[in-house]
Model the fold of this input.
Amino acid sequence: MKLMIVDDEAPARQRLRGLISELGGDYEVTAEAENGEQAVALSEAHPVDLVFMDIHMPGMDGLEAAAHISRQEPPPAIIFITAYSEHALDAFEVNAVDYLLKPIRRQKLQAALEKATRLTRPLVQKEAEAETWLTSRYRGGVQRIALSDVYYFRADSK
Done:
């Protein structure tokens, strides 16, 4: 899983990178940004699976950057890491996977990574398989229809 760390404090980025490497697993930090503008530009140039985002940063804050990043196709998962608990509701409004308070504990980080992996891996696999069939209820049974055989959809009785 490709990760990006976004925090205006270099020591915070280093500590998080160190915690991630201690956990092992299939996690690779491929990008780091100091502010929201850099995060948006990097995520467009080098797509990642998961972004660790601080909220309070100079210029574009983490919430605004997350809103921009979440419009990408496919959007990366976002975990907010901040010292302020009052932004949790705002974070989940931009589809955050988790919200961790600083200082980050290894157990909380591992749980957040596992949660993000569970949520993002099925989506990645499903996109790769490219579903070409749909199913429909018909006369008490289920009928499988090739998508290439569909000319239009019509709703009847709800």
